[in-house]
């Protein structure tokens, strides 16, 4: 809080007249006028409390004791504030850790979603390749089957020709024997 006397320089000053311990004081400050009046009333009440406890004190003694009491209040409140802030430091630290973990998890999730999309595209390509492979495999199987049928036909023809060759060889052997016999007889 910054208060300056009437002669002090303040950029955006608010000026109020405050009555403390029966005497008026002009106060100038940066805070709003209502706040300046509230502060003045608080000081006046505290001085009244000190004077009420001991009527024989001088005004300067009342002011000093009031300042001591207000300093005591301030220090106790600061200590209480530090303790209260201490209570929140660990939860705030944990909150920040959790927030960082959450951000990291969101980032990891985003990367996993991108990888998932890439895998889906790859899977789609693999499915197309599989379909093409299956189609080509069926075509090749049909070609093999056709070739096997042609080979079977060729084997049948070869077997038939071999049989005819064998029969002709037998006939040739028989014809030679007849020719030899015929030559011997003649």
TrEMBL record:
Gene3D superfamilies: 6.10.250.790. One of its GO terms (cellular component) is cytosol. InterPro entries: Bac_CellDiv_Activator, Cell_div_ZapA-like, Cell_div_ZapA-like_sf. PANTHER family: CELL DIVISION PROTEIN ZAPA (PTHR34981). Activator of cell division through the inhibition of FtsZ GTPase activity, therefore promoting FtsZ assembly into bundles of protofilaments necessary for the formation of the division Z ring. It is recruited early at mid-cell but it is not essential for cell division. Homodimer. Interacts with FtsZ. This is Cell division protein ZapA. It comes from Isachenkonia alkalipeptolytica.
């Amino acid at each position: 809080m910054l208060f300056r006397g009437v002669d002090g320089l303040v950029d955006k000053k608010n000026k109020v007249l405050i009555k403390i311990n029966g005497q008026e004081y002009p106060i100038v400050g940066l805070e709003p006028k209502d706040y300046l009046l509230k502060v003045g009333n608080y000081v006046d009440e505290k001085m009244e409390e000190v004077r009420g406890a001991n009527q024989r004190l001088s005004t300067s003694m009342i002011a000093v004791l009031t300042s001591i009491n207000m300093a005591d209040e301030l220090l106790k409140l600061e200590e209480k504030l530090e303790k209260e802030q201490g209570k929140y430091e660990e939860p705030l630290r944990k909150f920040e850790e959790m927030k960082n973990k959450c951000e990291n998890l969101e980032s990891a999730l985003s990367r996993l979603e991108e990888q998932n999309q890439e895998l889906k595209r790859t899977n789609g390509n693999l499915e197309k390749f599989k379909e093409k492979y299956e189609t080509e495999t069926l075509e090749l199987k049909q070609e093999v089957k056709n070739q096997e049928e042609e080979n079977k036909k060729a084997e049948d023809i070869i077997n038939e020709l071999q049989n005819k060759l064998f029969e002709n060889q037998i006939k040739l052997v028989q014809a030679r024997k007849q020719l030899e016999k015929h030559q011997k007889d003649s």
